[in-house]
Amino acid sequence: MGCVTSFFRVQAGSRLRRQTALTLALGAALAVSGQANQPDAGPVIQMLREHRNPEALAAADQMLAKYPQDCRLLSLQGMALNSMQKPADAERSFQEALRFCPDDLLALEGAAEIAYAQRQPVTDRLLLRILKIRPQDPTANAMLASYDRGRGDCQAALPHFEASQQLFASRPTFQEGYAFCLAKTGKYAPAAAAYQAVLDRVPDKTARYNLALVQWKLQDPKGALATLQPELTGDANEMVLALGSRLAEESGDTLLAVKMLRQAILTSPKDPENYLEFAQISFSHQSFQVGIDVINAGLTQLPNSAPLYVARGVLEMQLSHADQAATDFERAHRMEPQLSLAMDALGIVASQQYKEGAALDLFRQQAKLHPNDALLQYLYAEALSEATSEANGTQEAIAAARKSVAIDPGYSPARDLLALLWLRANQPQRALEQAEAALKIQPNDDVALYHEIMARRRLGQTDQIQPLLKQLTTMRSENAQKERASHRYLLQEEPGS
Asked: Is 51 helix (H, G, I), strand (E, B) or coil?
């Protein structure tokens, strides 16, 4: 989880953080020690300050024999035990103090420190109790932010990071954690600023990688590549090289992209993603045979990788090697029957060979073999819809699409297709029903929204068309951004997090 490893009230530049925290805590204890009806804990406090922990523990034990419910003595006992590396015994002392004094800050901080170090589930509750008493406490906020981040709740962590910003200057790891959570929640511009502030203070490979990634998601590949450049020399790791390759390609430097991607493949020859990335670059630049050669090398390392066979089949199709492509698609489907792209590709092979009947027969055969497979029924309906525009063919496609929806009502592509088919059959009300159902499943389904617009237009509901068109424009823009953000490149955690 990583961001906060200090203790309460740790000050910037302290040579011995634990000693500083102890001194301040003991000062607070001394301020209330010796008040009316309370034993004088001054000697115990002085021993703790001088690190005479066994003597402090013995003195506290002796006084507790006479005052067993004294919260201050119990907390001091806990501090002595914790300093003696006995956290379990210390925790019992702090909990006993809290039993008598639920709002005792010294006991709360001691218990929270131990819980935080051990990542106990009670950590957040203890820290929240401290923040209820002292809402602006920067260290408690930083610890809670770190704890929330560690359990994957960056949204909850952000306000606590913001409340601990005064620690950022002396503790860049706090700011790096803040930047991480900003990026994780899609707040890329402030995340970039926070990561840049970290790098301005200290060189940090993880922060540099994450800053480049955030800049890329802000659609600045050239700036991201410049940020990443110091990490692209020497023994760069595979993830840095892969990201660098993508940034170089998007910046228009394909030669550099290929160079880095080849290096990434050599660094991690068992990672299929880099071979697939190379296939994509080869496809984009119509260097199909080069892509096939690299995929062949990948298959020597990963002979059972279905996606690699699909990628090779796609490239083979571009060279009109339909038989080899079909063999690869069939092999991929045998390896991973759930890999729908392989089935789609088989249909593409047949249709590109001007054998629409063969493609249709392929999906019809599979649909009969797997009558309760929603995906295959959908593929069959799609093949039918593409094979003919005649009324009979459309009705047959509608029947198959309806069967897919009946098997899996939550499969939105089938509803999208059914909406299209109902439009083709001049049934706009039914098309509207399917489009609305698809949008309930996937609120960002721009295909469904387009079908809704077409259906409402045919139904004469023209007053709703303009706002829906604006919504469609926004949705498509957001979907494009999300597609970039969902790429395999992920934020890296700081070491120890």
From this structure: coil
pTM attached to this predicted model: 0.63
Rounded Cα distance, 169 and 56, in Å: 36
> Domain limits of the chain?
1-120, 419-492
Element (H, E) at 369: helix 356-369
Find where tokens 């979907």 sit.
479
CATH of the domain spanning 1-120? 1.25.40.10
> How far apart (Å, rounded) are the C-alpha atoms in residues 12 and 82?
23
**AA letter at 375:** L
* 364-373 confidence digits (pLDDT tens): 777 777 788 8
Runs of H (alpha helix) within 425-464: 428-441, 446-458
Low pLDDT (below 70) residues in the chain = 1-37, 337-360, 362, 387-393, 477, 479-489, 495-497
Please list, residue by residue across 229-266, b when 16 or more beta carbons sit within 10 angstroms of its beta carbon and e when fewer do: eebbeeebebbbbbbbbbbbbbbebeebbbebbebbbe
3-state secondary structure of 258: helix
Cα-atom radius of gyration of the chain, to the nearest Å? 32
